[in-house]
Description:
Layout: E1 2-13, E2 17-35, E3 40-43, H1 58-70, E4 79-85, H2 95-110, H3 117-128, H4 134-139, E5 142-147, E6 151-156, E7 161-167, H5 174-179, H6 187-206, H7 209-216, H8 223-226, H9 233-241, E8 246-249, E9 256-261, H10 265-275, E10 280-284, E11 292-296
Parallel strand pairs: 3-4
Antiparallel strand pairs: 1-2, 1-11, 2-4, 2-5, 5-6, 7-9, 7-10, 8-9
Helix pairs in contact: 1-2, 2-3, 6-7
Amino acid sequence: xxxxxxxxxxxxxxxxxxxxxxxxxxxxxxxxxxxxxxxxxxxxxxxxxxxxxxxxxxxxxxxxxxxxxxxxxxxxxxxxxxxxxxxxxxxxxxxxxxxxxxxxxxxxxxxxxxxxxxxxxxxxxxxxxxxxxxxxxxxxxxxxxxxxxxxxxxxxxxxxxxxxxxxxxxxxxxxxxxxxxxxxxxxxxxxxxxxxxxxxxxxxxxxxxxxxxxxxxxxxxxxxxxxxxxxxxxxxxxxxxxxxxxxxxxxxxxxxxxxxxxxxxxxxxxxxxxxxxxxxxxxxxxxxxxxxxxxxxxxxxxx
Length: 303
């Protein structure tokens, strides 16, 4: 028996939706899982070459955690796991969240745990600390979530717009991006910040991307602080805003994303690539269906 596990990447925050709003995108972490004599993780993409090859792999560590919590006395049967990914690492596109979801799905499949979506999301959020990346990678679409020991969320399908990712050639670790954030806000600042986030959510629900773009520019929570870590932020933000609904810092950065109407995206991105050839440009669609699992029968050789 073997399994295919395919987990979409994600972008989060969307400006003011700090740690609470995320979108699934059509970049994927893919696992081909086959029973074996011992655990082995095989990288099949260049960006994964440095991953741990044994039980110190993050996917296994998550799977083991789930097995210990839900599997009773059963142990995970050893497998060979071939891993492919087209998600840039440490760029604010949810690469670690995909590994968490993959580990949960791996344990669920190997031990027939039959976990519900809500149970999987609860486990993932407890591990990650917030739902903004793990929720869309699991469920698909845009997910707006709250976590205070229990996850509450709503899911919204998204269509009609392309999310154009502008990816620089350097990494930005989440812990470094969190270190520059303020430890507290005044009451007045909190009201302002939350009101921007509230309008942002309403704009997403209505598909009012122009309004969402305006709210992205008014974020109080993280972009004003994190942009100091990204030397090109102000220049690119001003340039991209001219021909898009709005621009936001994806997750902790350093990737920036412009929201562009589907009808105009080809010509716009062609010009952007010409003007800024040193960046990687990805025109991404929202993945509205979330994680994909397929159980496969192994083909026995004919005698």
